[in-house]
Specification:
Blueprint (H helix, E strand, L loop, with lengths): L2 H33 L4 H12 L1 H8 L5 H37 L4 H28 L2 E9 L8 E6 L11 H14 L3 E4 L9 H5 L2 H5 L8 E3 L3 H6 L2 H10 L2 E3 L3 E5 L3 E5 L16 H5 L8 E4 L6 H6 L4 E4 L11 H7 L5 E5 L2 E5 L17 E9 L3 H5 L1
Helix pairs in contact: 1-2, 1-4, 1-5, 3-4, 4-5
């Protein structure tokens, strides 16, 4: 390991540990005051285990200790949410407690009173966020593409990005996806990346393919890779598993559907440098196509809307951003991406970015909602075509 990398890891762990100590110290002040518990070393050990539970779970989920690793990963996931909101709320809480103390308030007021309010607020945030994460909604968009699609005048699409199937998200949430998609009754199902949460092993071991294979549509189910498929390092195996259950993973590939429209699927940007096959640009993928047909692009990260517009793409579908997942992270994704969530018209391009069906890390959504997209497309001939 390079010295610079080692130094970075040490600095990160030092900062992370300091934050964990700060949050744990605040918890100890309230708990010890309420319960009279004085065994702080035992409390410190519990906080340390929780703070590093996600890392422990991630390292152990593919080992014989997986029965312990998976609960540890779930606990650690919730810790990340507590970490973020603790950093946002506790400095304000501590400042308020200090002011009350200096003003002569009793310890019951500035420790128990203020601390209890902060604790209840944190619990409320986690409760609402958990509901938003596990209770998906259907979000509908109606668009018109000014091209002929042969005999087809309409197309109903169900879109689900960022499923993050693995040790935390499994069959139960997958069944929610199937139920929502069945409500839409789509002609085609499109999955714009991050079907997996890093590792293929939990997906295979838990037999998720049997449940996932229940996703059916007359025109098929198509997916592209996201960055998390590459993090797991088993993209060929993933593509093969999807093929077994009838999901076509497009790797810089195009397919003409019913001689009506063209579906274009890009490898994720994370593939760059990880594969001997270069990731093709949108322009390269479009160049050999019949551009008189509607062109629908699946590209996991919404990074190149300008190129998509210039290349004649009619509808681009992406995910990746989670819309920040937890408030106020959307302020960051909004600056990172031209479109981090929702719909944008750019020339003739209709761009749609989903906040995703699953989640990464904490099963908590406070800045977005778990969603499945219902997209109704109307195909319209241009004036020249109508007159011919």
């Amino acid at each position: 390991m390079k010295a610079r990398t080692l130094f970075t890891i040490i600095v990160f762990l030092a900062i992370y540990s300091a934050i964990a100590v700060y949050i744990g110290w605040n918890g100890w002040l309230l708990m010890s005051e309420l319960t009279g518990w004085s065994a702080w070393p035992a409390y410190a050990i519990v906080v340390a285990l929780i703070a590093f539970a996600y890392i422990i779970g991630r390292l152990g989920q593919s080992t014989p200790l997986r029965s312990l690793a998976e609960p540890a990963k779930l606990i650690g996931s919730y810790w990340f949410a507590l970490l973020q909101y603790g950093l946002l709320l506790l400095p304000i809480t501590d400042a308020a407690a200090l002011v009350l103390k200096l003003a002569g308030a009793d310890r019951d007021v500035y420790v128990v009173g203020v601390g209890s309010v902060a604790a209840l607020l944190l619990l409320l945030i986690l409760a609402v966020g958990t509901h938003n994460a596990w209770s998906p909604v259907i979000r509908r968009y109606d668009i018109a593409i000014e091209k002929s699609a042969g005999d087809r005048s309409r197309l109903t699409i169900a879109v689900a990005s960022d499923l993050h199937l693995g040790s935390v998200i499994g069959h139960r949430h997958l069944n929610r996806l199937i139920a929502k998609v069945n409500e839409i009754k789509p002609d085609i199902i499109l999955l714009p990346g991050d079907v997996l949460d890093d590792d293929l092993e939990p997906f295979v071991r838990k037999g998720m393919g049997a449940t996932f294979g229940k996703l059916k549509a007359p025109l098929g189910v198509y997916a592209v890779t996201g960055n998390h498929e590459y993090f797991g390092g088993k993209v060929p195996e993933y593509v093969n598993e999807m093929r077994k259950i009838g999901v076509h993973v497009l790797m810089d590939e195009t397919v003409v559907i019913e001689d009506s429209f063209v579906l274009i699927g890009r490898k994720d940007k994370a593939s760059e440098g990880r594969s001997r096959d270069r990731r093709q640009s949108i322009a390269e993928l479009v160049e050999p196509l019949d551009a008189s047909k509607p062109l629908i692009l699946l590209d996991h990260q919404p990074l190149e809307l300008g190129e998509a517009e210039a290349s004649g793409i009619d509808l681009s579908l992406s995910g990746h951003t989670h819309r920040g997942q937890m408030f106020p992270n959307h302020l960051i994704t909004r600056r990172m991406f031209e479109l981090d969530w929702g719909y944008k018209r750019k020339g003739k391009l209709h761009a749609i970015v989903s906040s995703g069906f699953g989640f990464w890390g904490p099963p908590v959504r406070t800045g977005s909602r778990s969603e499945v997209l219902h997209i109704e497309v109307s195909f319209l001939k241009t004036s020249a075509q109508r007159g011919s």
